[in-house]
Amino acid sequence: MKELEDYNYSSLPNDVALKIASSLEVSDLSSLGSCSRVWRELCKSDCLWESLVRQRWPLLNEAVFKDPNFEGWRGFYIKQHKEMMNRAASVVKFVEQCSPSDSLEVNDHLRAIECLRSIQFGFKDVQLLLFKPKLNVLLNLVGLHYCLNRLRVPASDVVEALESSKISDHQVCVKWWKLGRWFYGFRMRDESHSRCISLEDLATSKAEEVLGVLDRGAIHEVLRVQISLANSTSNHWSSYSPQ
Fold it and tell me: N or C terminus: fewer CB in 10 A for the chain?
């Protein structure tokens, strides 16, 4: 970035300067735009900010950009970023309210994921707002599951994001209860299964069974699914009893 700031823009063809700017992250693009009047004008270009908007929020409805009050791509990006921060805060609050003892029922977990889908969260939003080391791992898991299940982000990209956020080794414990099988006219006791697994393993094929349970939730033969912190006392559950 320092080299770009010191570089004389007038010696660069316009398409080359745009190519350089288009390879930058938003924070670096803003820094470059503050180093001179010429770079400032170039870094406001709609072609740059349209690409950033579409990359970050691929689920946005095209009708948004045809609104007569649309203020340009840069203005839209800034406004949308602030809205996503506020909406992410509401999802965080919801999960925290549903998990007072560091355990979360799967229906609340799936509801949080659906909320992210409804507000058109993008992969970058998850990385910025949910893949935080200081956040409860249950919230990290919501972001991870949303990326895989709704956004269909490649597992390799998710793993890279987990590693760069330093949360790939954070663990959750998933326990589920299955309806007891019938044996010679008698129904046997309900079965309980428990797995403690890292977020990185959940993003790969190492935890297909657990991810499948989280995807389906409590339906059919699965009576209940509960998620907790791996090191929490709440993962020492008693036997399931119908409520």
Answer: C
3-state SS assignment for residue 143: helix
Q: Name the one residue in this structure whose structure tokens are 């660069």.
A: 12
Hey, where are the domains in the chain?
A: 2-74, 75-235
Residue 230 backbone zone (phi > 0: left; psi -120 to 50: alpha; other: beta): alpha
pLDDT (tens digit per residue) in 142-159: 999 999 999 999 999 999
DSSP state of 237: P
Report pLDDT for 20: 82
Task: Give the pairing of strands 103-105 and 191-198.
Answer: unpaired
Strand, coil or helix: 105: strand
CATH number of 2-74: 1.20.1280.50
DSSP tag of 239? P
Contact indicator for 32, 61 with CB cutoff of 8 Å: no
Cα–Cα separations (whole angstroms), residue 129 to 57, 60, 70, 96, 165: 14, 18, 25, 15, 11
- The whole-model pTM stands at 0.78
Q: Degrees (nearest 5) of the Cα angle 93, 101, 127?
A: 45
